[in-house]
Amino acid sequence: MSQQKFSYPLTHEASILLIGSCFSDEIGQRFVQNGFQATVNPGGTIFHPIALAKLLLFACQESQNLRVCQRDDIWLSWDLSGGFYALSEQELQAKMQELRIKLFNDIQQSTHLFITFGTSWAYRLQADQNLVANCHKHSSDQFSKENSSVEEMLHVWVELIEQIKRLNPEIKFIFTVSPVRHSKDGLHENNLSKARLFLLVEQLMTFSNCHYFPAFELVNDQLRDYLFFKEDGVHPNTKATDFVWNFFKHNYLEPETQLLLDEWESLQVAMRHRIMYPDSKAGILHQAQLNKRQEDFFLKHPQLRPTQP
């Protein structure tokens, strides 16, 4: 797939915030593994554009609050993923306040904000008539299902972009539509949802500092094969994520950063190589040489601080 190079290529000096669907988690892990300063879905995986916007507005505006609910002895928020929980309401409120502070700081300090929209299908809580980020396995009769309109989603995101730009005028927004198929909604319904997300992103591209990354097209139009999906036929597998990451590297990173990551990958391959006889003289010498190579690499490139996600 041909694409014009990104106008604001990234280096390891970038500070990156990634939020959205599980595809944000996949790509976010690549950033972390390759030494970038990246925050990945601090409120958990969230699929719907309005739910994502609510989380970011919660960070930007002290007047915004997140709703809580209880399932058995677990406390959760209707506005966060199921992975964000506590065993008391007080503990959950404290965790959400910490989340607000962290997200606010990330928004203020990040050079790039990656947003991955997953679906426009939404669930509205009957009790307050607001959308939820997650139903948390509560009874379906508590919700009504709907497909959010482009206009409704756009209105929320226009307000949000303006709010974030007031806090961080130089931040770059990079939007993408998740290639994950929401097959539980039905394949036709999933296509209707993705179409609305594309129309939403098209409108958002009219704002300055807003850009589009073609993750959906790379997986579904260029690879076009279920061999690049996990066994469920829904989620892209490691090969597909590798393909998308390599495309990103060559189109969104500075050339020097690309070369640095190639060198880092070569070192990783060498470190992963299994020595047949590690206790032999040759094995001990080989390991010592690898350790020295790794030490020299980080002395030469202190900006690269890889960690496991």
Detail the topology: elements first, then pairings.
Layout: E1 15-20, H1 22-33, E2 37-40, H2 49-60, E3 68-71, E4 74-77, E5 85-86, H3 89-109, E6 112-117, E7 121-125, E8 130-132, E9 143-147, H4 150-167, E10 172-177, H5 187-204, E11 210-212, H6 215-223, H7 238-252, H8 255-272, H9 281-300
Parallel strand pairs: 1-2, 1-6, 6-10, 10-11
Antiparallel strand pairs: 3-4, 4-5, 7-8, 7-9
Helix pairs in contact: 2-3, 2-4, 4-5, 6-7, 8-9
Task: Please supply descriptive tags for the structure shown above.
Rossmann fold; three-stranded antiparallel sheet; alpha/beta; 309 residues; 9 helices; five-stranded parallel sheet; 16% strand; 2 domains
- Return the string of H and E elements: EHEHEEEHEEEEHEHEHHHH
Described by its quaternary structure, the protein is single chain
Can you tell me the overall shape? globular
The main β sheet shows up as:
5 strands, parallel
Strand arrangement in the largest pleated sheet: 2-1-6-10-11
Q: For this structure, what is the CATH homologous superfamily of the largest domain?
A: SGNH hydrolase
Distance between the termini: 29 Å
The residue fraction in helices comes out at 40-55%
- Report the β-strand fraction as a percent range: 15-25%
Number of helices: 9
CATH architecture descriptor of the largest domain: 3-Layer(aba) Sandwich
Unreliable residue runs: none
Structural class by SSE content: alpha/beta
Number of strands: 11
Number of domains: 2
CATH class of the largest domain: Alpha Beta
The overall average pLDDT, rounded, is 91
What integer value in Å does the Rg equal? 21 Å
CATH fold name of the largest domain, please? Answer: Rossmann fold
